[in-house]
Amino acid sequence: MEQKRAEVIEKIKKAKRIVVKVGSLLLAGEGTGIFNELANEVNSLRRSGKEIVIVSSGSIAMGMKKIGSKDHPTTIPERQAAAALGQTALMAGYENAFANFDIDVAQVLLTNDDLADRRRFLNAKNTLCMLISHGVVPVINENDTVAVDEIKFGDNDNLAARTAQLIEADLCVLMSADVDGFYNKDPKKYDDAERVSFIEDIDDFDLDTESTDTNLYGTGGVASKISSARIAAHSGAITIALKGGGKDFITSIFSGQIDGTVIAPKEDRLTSKKHWIAYSSTPNGKVTVDEGGKSALVEGNKSLLPSGVADVEGNFEAGEVIHCLDKKGFEFARGMVNYSSKELEVIKGLKSVEIEGKLGYKVSDEVIHRDNLVVL
Fold it and tell me: Is the CB of residue 63 less than 8 Å from the CB of residue 70?
């Protein structure tokens, strides 16, 4: 464990492309000082050859402050109005602070739909990479003025992890004012709670489900950070969850002074496409797979053939992502399908050599090729 932690710390020091998520309470509680400190530290990191992308909360919090409200808006129209009002103040804070170092910032607003659609996902990726290549610091936020529950990322921890995957970042820093890492139990309720400084395998980390507090301004909490760290880890990025604020609260990370929790990346890093299939896409249908088909996918790293498909549910076209369920209804995989739901209804249970005889044509031997399938 100690050797692995030392290896990860060394990788952090050498990380080049970094996503830094700044929580709402940090921005709402520290005024312009936090913007100035962020700009100062980003400038220092850029001079050492690092590329920084900021995922910023705060638009709703800024809107609340503008109208003098102490109560978090509860309805969607109230949240959207507060976000619209606060977004200009948020970006003005970044722009003014970074202008002191002659650094341009760019506002990038995203919704879950932007990353669920493969073409829009790639467009967002290309835009961000172009901004980075021109020395611009992207400031990403969820588009709260139009997002509703069905298309929300959930919180900006999740958005930060998805951004790390999108731009193939080396490091994802989840920084907030009230969460200084992950604990073995809720530190607000148990005096003997201990902070976990290093997690080698996030998939095996047992979260105390009571540790899910959020604050007045934010929607995230410990549970969301665990989930986000899992997304980042499977994309190959190291994650750090820590409390922000004060002097050198980002740059100190790269000297090995990490007062928080470090989560190692997964060894079996998913490709960009497979990570998109697993975490960013919105599946549009389901297929039930028999035991033989499930075994071939899970244990044999094989493709899904029509002979393994027992049932088809929903309406979907070829090229869309679908859920793969076992006979008990448990989702064990998802993938990009080669046939529509109507075509699968015709060829389910058949051998590949029988496809053309039933449909009059054959697109592929596989329903889902293993290169387009992720076992969950």
Answer: no
Locate the domains of the chain by residue range: 2-274, 283-375
Sign of CA dihedral 156, 162, 167, 169: positive
Those residues with Cβ within 8 angstroms of residue 226's Cβ, 6 or more apart along the chain or in another chain: 182, 202, 205, 207
Classify strands 260-263 and 137-142 as parallel, antiparallel or unpaired: unpaired
Burial class (CB in 10 A: 0-12, 13-18, 19+), 16: exposed
Here the contacts of 40-47 (C-beta below 8 Å, separation 24 or greater) are: 40/101, 41/248, 41/249, 41/250, 41/251, 42/98, 42/101, 42/103, 42/137, 42/250, 43/98, 43/101, 43/103, 44/251, 45/18, 45/250, 45/251, 45/254, 46/103, 46/135
CA angle, 347 as apex, 343 and 352 as ends, to 5°? 120
pLDDT digits (tens, 9 = 90+) for 101-130: 999 999 998 888 888 888 888 899 999 999
List beta partners, residue 334. Answer: 323, 374
Q: How far apart are CA 222 and CA 224, in angstroms?
A: 5
- E strands, 150-194, are 171-176, 182-183
CA angle 355, 356, 357 (to 5 degrees): 90
Distance CA 290, CA 327 (A): 6
> Is this model's pTM higher than 0.85 or not?
no
Question: Distances in Å between the alpha carbon of 60 and those of 23, 68, 147?
Answer: 12, 12, 13
The kind and range of the H/E element at 17 are strand 17-22
CA distance 57 to 158: 12
Identical topology for domains 2-274 and 283-375: no
SS3 of residue 310 by DSSP: strand
Residues 134-165: pLDDT tens digits?
Answer: 999 999 988 766 655 544 555 789 899 999 99
CATH architecture of 283-375: Roll (2.30)
CATH number of 2-274: 3.40.1160.10
